[in-house]
């Protein structure tokens, strides 16, 4: 049984050279992880022209390479949507991934879109719960590790 669904909408032609989503075929069957999660060797690019939608089970292991395109081909805008069953906690934690400076500038309507609106009885998170919106505790994530190249 699938717990969620991911959709990537390619707004421009998206190929391996400009960082197309890469998938590990059949990895969603039996939750089989790649032998080395720090390399893209076992993955294949899910390439497509502009206006392509890549739809896949959220259990499918996927990644991307850095954009290796030359000048004039660098942009790779993609719209990402994630759908989960109601009892599954989201993999993306917007409370922690959004920079505090950006969060501070958001109007209430956009905060609601990001999931900052307080909904009694649904989910939970560490933070300060105000009358309408949730704010993060200071340094909730901690120090980030250095990124590793996937090339």
Class by SSE composition: alpha+beta
Count of DSSP strands = 8
What CATH architecture of the largest domain would you give?
Answer: Sandwich
Major sheet details: 3 strands, antiparallel
- What's the CATH H-level homologous superfamily of the largest domain? q2cbj1_9rhob like domain
Assembly type of the chains comes to single chain
Main CATH class of the largest domain: Mainly Beta
Please provide the ordered H/E string of secondary-structure elements. Answer: EEEEEEHHHEE
* CATH-derived topology of the largest domain: Jelly Rolls
Please tell me the overall pLDDT: 77
Domains, number: 2
**Range of strand content:** 15-25%
Question: Order of strands side by side in the largest beta sheet?
Answer: 4-1-6
| Distinct helical segment count | 3
Q: How large, in whole angstroms, is the Cα Rg?
A: 18 Å
Shape: globular
Approximate helicity band: 10-25%
Low-pLDDT stretches: 122-126
State the end-to-end CA separation. Answer: 34 Å
Topology, element by element:
Layout: E1 4-10, E2 21-23, E3 44-45, E4 52-57, E5 62-64, E6 78-84, H1 94-97, H2 100-105, H3 108-114, E7 128-129, E8 134-135
Antiparallel strand pairs: 1-4, 1-6, 2-3, 2-5, 7-8
